[in-house]
């Protein structure tokens, strides 16, 4: 058995954070891919290691560590060879405050357009009883799915989520301006960069990259991130929604054509 076993899903933004951290540290791990629509994360064996029924979960020598932000910090605590946190305690506290903001504002906000644009057809194919049973089976996501329903989030909620994403990108640009780049905290890539990475990747994937069209610092940050070795191994084929859901890729092409 590998020292690290990562239970995750390819398109899960929280899973992508942890995959990147492991890859950035050069830590070998066994990857167990869960099919979230098949309910793998709700099966008794998985709930025994993560009672929240969400991904990811990291097993380290058979002992579970859950919650992506917690897992990232845990990995940095046990492996100092590739440090991903600042040396200064005050700067570490500032990094944690950034992650707290990322987890409270853009991370939940990006789920709304993700579900409406990518996942909704899956739920529309269900009967009302099947959808209700799915909602009831979710320890952490029941209320979220109930609000979405089988018709999707209403325009008001979509607009609110998009507004929160725009504000988060603005905050990110401010952090980059303050740090001087190339990363959120300056010369060293930290867990704060990794925390917001899946949000920016997801926004680009679902055609929301216009949010930073007037923010060149964010565009430069994104370009630099995509050039890191850990990025390609984290975002293998199938990790993007447009690679799994053809209707999203077709939507991007249609919008590009209409903009000409």
Question: What does this protein look like?
Answer:
The chain folds into two domains: 4-78, Glutaredoxin, CATH 3.40.30; 89-258, Glutathione S-transferase Yfyf (Class Pi), Chain A, domain 2, CATH 1.20.1050.10. The chain has helices at 13-24, 44-47, 68-78, 89-104, 106-109, 111-124, 128-136, 142-148, 155-179, 191-205, 216-226, 229-234, 241-244, 246-258, and strands at residues 4-8, 30-33, 57-60, 63-66. Helix content is 58%, strand content 7%. It contains 14 helices and four strands. It is globular and about 55 Å long. It is α+β, with helices and mostly antiparallel strands. Helix 1 (13-24) packs across helix 10, helix 4 runs parallel beside helix 10 (191-205) and helix 7 runs antiparallel to helix 8. The longest helix is centred in the middle third of the chain and has 25 residues, at 155-179.
List the helices and strands and how they pair.
Blueprint: E1 4-8, H1 13-24, E2 30-33, H2 44-47, E3 57-60, E4 63-66, H3 68-78, H4 89-104, H5 106-109, H6 111-124, H7 128-136, H8 142-148, H9 155-179, H10 191-205, H11 216-226, H12 229-234, H13 241-244, H14 246-258
Parallel strand pairs: 1-2
Antiparallel strand pairs: 1-3, 3-4
Helix pairs in contact: 1-3, 1-10, 4-10, 6-9, 7-8, 9-11
């Amino acid at each position: 058995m590998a020292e690290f076993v990562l239970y995750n899903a390819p398109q899960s933004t929280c899973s992508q954070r942890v995959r990147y951290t492991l890859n950035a540290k050069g830590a070998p791990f066994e990857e167990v891919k869960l099919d979230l629509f098949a309910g793998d994360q709700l099966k008794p064996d998985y709930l025994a290691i993560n009672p929240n029924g969400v991904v990811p979960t990291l097993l380290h020598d058979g002992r579970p560590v859950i919650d992506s932000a917690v897992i990232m910090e845990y990995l940095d605590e046990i492996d100092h060879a590739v440090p991903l946190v600042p040396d200064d305690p005050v700067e570490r506290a500032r990094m944690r405050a950034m992650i707290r903001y990322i987890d409270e504002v853009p991370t939940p906000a990006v789920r709304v357009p993700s579900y409406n644009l990518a996942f909704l057809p899956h739920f529309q194919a269900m009967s009302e009883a099947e959808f209700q049973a799915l909602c009831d089976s979710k320890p952490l996501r029941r209320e979220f799915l109930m609000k979405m329903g089988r018709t999707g989030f209403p325009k008001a909620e979509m607009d609110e989520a998009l507004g929160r994403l725009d504000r988060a990108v603005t905050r990110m640009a401010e952090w980059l301006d303050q740090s001087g780049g190339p990363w959120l905290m300056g010369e060293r890539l930290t867990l704060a960069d990794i925390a917001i990475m899946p949000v920016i990747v997801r926004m680009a994937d679902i055609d929301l990259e216009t949010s930073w069209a007037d923010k060149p610092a964010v565009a430069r940050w994104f370009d630099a991130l995509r050039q890191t070795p850990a990025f390609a191994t984290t975002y293998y084929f199938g990790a993007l929604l447009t690679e799994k859901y053809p209707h999203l890729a077709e939507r991007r092409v249609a919008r590009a054509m209409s903009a000409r």
